[in-house]
Amino acid sequence: MKSLPSAVLLAGLLILLLGSSGHAQDDPIFAGAAFHSLPPDYVCVGDSFQFQAGASADWPDVEPDENGIVPLVPLEYTHVDISAELGAVNPPRIEHYGDVFEFSFTYTAKKPGTETVTLTVNKGMAKTIERFEVHEKCDYDAYLLTVMHLTVDLGDEQAQYLARTVGSGILKRDREGSQFLQGDGRWHMQEVMLTKPAMCVEWYFPPLLIDGPFELDGRLDDEADSLDVILSFLPLDKSFYHGKTICVDEDGEVGEGWGTASGGNRDLAGVIESSYPLDGGSNQVEIKGKGMELVESQADLEYWATLTLIPR
């Protein structure tokens, strides 16, 4: 028995893997197509990613006619039309002179809904589809709000401070279909002193106005139904002048002071971790980190903090 050409063997194998469709029994031309890769678990408008796929069209050997002449057979030629109902594909057609091949194409999500991507081989000899959901919003605005009341024991008296911090940032997905998100933002704090030193008859303590950066990291869980978010405070990126403090004692003597804030140790910076549904929400959160532990070990700290995610 003659051995079959390797291309024929490969075509036969791929047809078994891809599935097939045939014409009438006297014209048994078989073809198939298949997706070799799947879309990401969570696809959003604006996402682009590549599909890997394969196709085949197999022409059987042509038998001689009654005169022993082998008729002229068509050149084995395969083309695949690619279409998407809601998005765009590039290229929309793949052409190949041969019976079996693999190819790739880029899909870009344009509208939300149930997407259907279709591969059609040789004008309908074979067809296969892949369906998945496209979501409208995948990026998030992040909003931070904290209110802190700090009491410091100075031995003969207690000093109390009230600090309010607001922050905003943007958390964005990787547009290659990754389940990871990244972003950044800035926080702004205003701190005031609620008490005055016992030695001062008159006391002026300007509010501390300070701001700095933070990072955002997010990850969709494996089922793509919730989002884990980490907010990490970063060291100050510039120095801040606190302003002039004035104390008038009972003898009328005036004392002045001032201070600056700069830098910071990232190892001491606060971190917030929280989980959200995909449509966002507002969570009351805990600020963790060595810096918070240090403050709580030296003062009485009460605080309330929320981190809010709103889809963009």
Textual characterization of the structure:
The protein has 312 residues and is mainly beta. The protein has two domains: 6-135, Immunoglobulin-like (Sandwich); 140-311, no CATH class. Helix content is 7%, strand content 56%. The protein has two helices and 21 strands. The strands form four sheets. It has a nine-stranded antiparallel beta sheet with strand order 19-21-10-11-12-14-15-18-20, covered by helices on one side. A five-stranded mixed beta sheet has the order 2-9-8-4-6, with no helix packed on it. A four-stranded antiparallel beta sheet has the order 1-3-7-5. A hairpin with a 4-residue loop joins strand 10 (140-153) and strand 11. The chain is rod-shaped, with a radius of gyration of 34 Å. It starts with 5 loop residues before the first helix and ends with a strand.
C-alpha end-to-end distance: 67 Å
Percent helix, as a range, is: under 10%
% residues in beta strands: over 45%
Widest beta sheet: strand line-up: 19-21-10-11-12-14-15-18-20
Whole-number tally of structural domains: 2
User: Tally of extended strands?
Assistant: 21
Give a quick account of the main beta sheet: strands, pairing sense, barrel closure: 9 strands, antiparallel
Low-confidence stretches: 1-26
What's the SSE pattern? HEEEEEEEEEEEEEEEEEEEEHE
SS-based structural class? Answer: mainly beta
Mean pLDDT metric: 84
Q: What form results from the Cα inertia axes?
A: rod-shaped
By DSSP (H or I, 4+ residues per run), the number of helices equals: 2
- Any idea what the radius of gyration is? 34 Å
